[in-house]
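Write out the bound-state structure for magnesium ion.
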Amino acid sequence: MDTLISSEKEMHTRYLSGEVKQQLLLDFKKANRRLIFLDYDGTLVPYVKYPHQAKPGEKLLATLKHLSDVSNTEVVIISGRDKAILQEWLGSLDIELAAEHGAWRKEKHRDWQLSALFVNDWKPEIRSVLQQYVNRLPGAFIEEKDFSLVWHYRAADEKSCAMIKNDFLNMMRKYVDDMNIEILQGNTVIEVRTTGVNKGTAGKYWIEKRRSDFILAIGDDRTDEDLFLALPQTAYTIKVGTPPSFARYNLLDNQQPVVIELLEDLVKNEYTT
Ligand SMILES: [Mg+2]
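---
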């Protein structure tokens, strides 16, 4: 048992087999209280050139509605997105939301609230440093959120990007030591954010709040690893894509259709006798 637990803390790639999927469906069905954490970009919707283009389609909205309609099932979307866009895109659903990796929480029938007190005094200085690098890279831009500055470079030239990015990361080393910030590299983004904000602490809040006997978490990005690590060993944790992960399983990388299909299967199976 000990070896099993420690090996679960290693990053690995292990695909979700048909057998495990059947077990997952079964465990979901027989559970009394279910809790499902879903990342948004790269998990429920494909990556797009500009972040505002990733609006949920009808199929996704219908799936999330079906899933949240299942009794004793709480769906939480935890995203790096800001709260305004999550509210606009997903606010009509009967689900709970966490924005900026959990800095903000939206529980049902309540307003958005800060999950802790975070200090943000680093922003003006870092913004001007970041702007200098972004100016050197046509197509790149900065997105400002309450607790982070995000450098998006999906639309920029890949070659010049690598160099400028490395310059920036080297430059940032000294700031990380002095300020209350951390640097996070995501899928064609670099995020500078206030320390202590992560999906793991966000996830723990919901686990405490809602004692569940079935937990599922699905995500594709580095930020989701914090959540995978924070969840109990018994949780089903799934990484979308092939890179090694702390998640127990990986799903092949044709992204959102696979995840939506899995969520639909949970619903279908629930109503099958
Ligand atoms: Mg993602």
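---
Residues 39, 41-43, 219-221 surround magnesium ion (CB under 6 Å).
The first strand starts at residue 34 and ends at 38.
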